[in-house]
TrEMBL record:
It comes from the Bacteria. Pfam families: PCC (PF03479). PANTHER family: DNA-BINDING PROTEIN, PROTEIN, PUTATIVE-RELATED. This is PPC domain-containing DNA-binding protein. PROSITE patterns: PPC. Residues 1-129 form the PPC domain. Keywords: DNA-binding, Plasmid. GO terms for molecular function: DNA binding.
Amino acid sequence: MSFLPLHLQPGVDLRRALETPMAEQGCEATFIVSGIGSLDQARLRLAGAAEELELNGALEVLTLAGSVAMNGSHLHASLANAQGRVLGGHLYYGCRVRTTAEVLLALLPDWHFRRECDAATGYGELAPRRREGLPG
């Protein structure tokens, strides 16, 4: 396992910026260890909701966590607005960094992550596998 700290600039799509290093590093499995920063636009899907919610204005990223697979990500965030109200949910594309985002990625070069349909949940769930030719 190796760690990759990211400092993301204003205007960057947060989710895309988290998925890009995998390809650049030749890694097929990544976890977001920690993330903080600010957004001026966010798209979240709240628990049990069918559609996503778009938020605009100054937002603080309080927590950011998840996994990044070759065929999709599963990311959660909690965000606070200017009044201190907190919302959390699944992070979608279209979350734009306002001033900065600081994220620590854990790259797992011995693993291959894919999302596969799970009959029990009906969702694409994480299917972690050790890369071929590696012990264990």
